[in-house]
Automatic annotation (TrEMBL):
It comes from Sabulicella glaciei. It comes from the Bacteria. Transmembrane segments: none annotated. Coiled coil: none annotated. Gene3D superfamilies: 3.40.47.10. The lineage of its organism: Bacteria, Pseudomonadati, Pseudomonadota, Alphaproteobacteria, Acetobacterales. Pfam families: Thiolase_C_1. This is Thiolase C-terminal domain-containing protein. Residues 273-370 form the Thiolase C-terminal domain.
Length: 419
């Protein structure tokens, strides 16, 4: 007989709040870094170590991910930084990998294989290896998994995901105007983020009048492409107390949870239902909180639609009500549950999800790196004035959720709380 969440003794609730993210670091988000991925990685990891108050000898684990050989392995990066790993691994993956690697970091530390793990993502996603069917990827032969998509014109993520988006519109009456509000709200947040590649605020009309890329996606429904390096550092909560900042304690994580089929997910369950339907059954019991208790979300926004569909299937609103949820002001900085407070992939930069984890860590510290004045103690004095060019720190953040996405059939998630 299958075990329920209530009776399953393997549910890792003993890990709740036992691990924390103690350091975060980034390079600038650009469209032409002029640097190798090796240089971007070392820059981001060094920034994260400085943020945590750690030295190279304090970090003995490295995890990285790449998609189509677009990054530099951790062994090279470790040598450049003076880190001697007791554990390292470089995995293949894009979206949904960040949360999965956080779970792996917890596991290898729990197993005694290392003490502190740096997780990084470095790639020149605009100037070198681009995700769509352009640049280096255009020459990839039609073999393996590509046989399920490329012969039918599914060359890029927008084309792969569009049928799910269209079906959602058909089934639930979701309108382009509603979905465009995801971009509008994220652009408002980005306008208060000095790091954002696209800090300009846009309107619904701007989104709908931008050129069509792949029905129903306009240009401004799609994420930006950027070059960057990003890093987070995970260690035990008892060690985190010695680091520089209030730790972001890890309540629960879900990594690469899938629908019954991944390659042709539409053959197993509604095409407009995503992997979050299954991930939520792991996430909320393990975190011992529900979606109604979350203060800030970071929902993967490769496209405006991915945010809408995940928020629905993780239970932040009922199925079919995502259009209303993303367009009624709930996600704004001044709303009930702000989403992607840095501007996310649509406006800040595209990192396969790790920058939204970084942002939620800063929100939990109550120290978003916005344009608010800095006091004599070096800390920002947040005004909570959310007009353009102002504050993006949400008041009294205690719980955050990150909702990762690889495709409609695969997802990941993370719940953190202020330590």
């Amino acid at each position: 007989m299958p075990l329920s969440a209530e009776t399953d003794t393997t549910t890792p609730r003993h890990l709740r709040d036992k691990y924390a993210i103690v350091g975060v670091g980034e390079t600038k988000y650009s469209r032409g870094s002029g640097l190798t991925t090796r240089a971007l990685a070392t820059w981001a990891i060094r920034n994260a170590m400085e943020d945590a108050g750690l030295r190279p000898g304090d970090v003995d684990g490295l995890l990285s991910y790449q998609y189509g050989s677009d990054s530099t392995p951790s062994t090279f990066v470790a040598g450049d930084l003076g880190i001697r790993p007791n554990f390292f691994m470089d995995v293949h993956g894009g979206g949904s990998t960040t949360e999965a690697l956080i779970g792996m970091a917890m596991g290898v530390i729990e197993a005694g294989m290392c003490r502190t793990v740096a997780i990084y993502r470095a790639f020149n996603g605009y100037s070198q290896v681009r995700i769509g069917g352009t640049g280096v990827r255009a020459a990839i032969p039609v073999v393996g998994d590509a046989l399920h998509g490329r012969p039918y014109g599914w060359e890029s993520p927008g084309q792969w995901f569009a049928p799910s988006f269209m079906r959602h519109m058909h089934d639930y009456g979701t309108t382009p105007e509603q979905v465009a509000m995801v971009k509008v709200i994220h652009s408002e947040h980005a306008s208060n983020n000095p790091k954002a590649l696209y800090p300009k605020r846009v309107t619904v009309e701007d989104v709908l009048s931008s050129r069509m890329i792949c029905t129903p996606l306009h240009l401004l429904d799609c994420c930006v492409e950027t070059d960057s390096g990003t890093c987070i550092i995970v260690t035990r909560a008892d060690r985190a107390r010695d680091c520089r900042h209030v730790p972001a304690l890890i309540r629960a994580t879900v990594g690469r949870c899938c629908k019954p089929r991944i390659d042709m997910h539409y053959q197993a369950g509604p095409i407009s239902t995503v992997a979050a339907k299954y991930a939520r059954e792991i996430l909320w019991p393990n975190a011992d909180v529900g979606p109604e208790e979350i203060d800030v979300t970071g929902s993967y926004d490769a496209f405006t639609f991915t945010t809408l569909m995940q928020l629905e299937d993780y239970g932040f609103c009922a199925k079919g009500e995502g259009g209303a949820y993303v367009s009624d002001g709930t996600m704004r900085l001044s709303g009930k549950r702000p989403n992607n407070t840095s501007g996310g992939h649509l406006c800040e930069g595209y990192t396969h999800g790790i920058n939204m984890v970084i942002e939620n860590v800063r929100q939990l510290r109550h120290d978003a790196d916005d344009s608010c004045p800095v006091g004599a103690d070096g800390k920002r004095i947040h005004t909570h004035d959310y007009r353009e060019g102002g504050c993006r720190q949400v008041r009294d953040v205690e719980l955050t959720a990150n909702l990762g996405w690889a495709n409609p059939g695969t997802g990941s998630a993370l719940v953190m709380r202020r330590g």
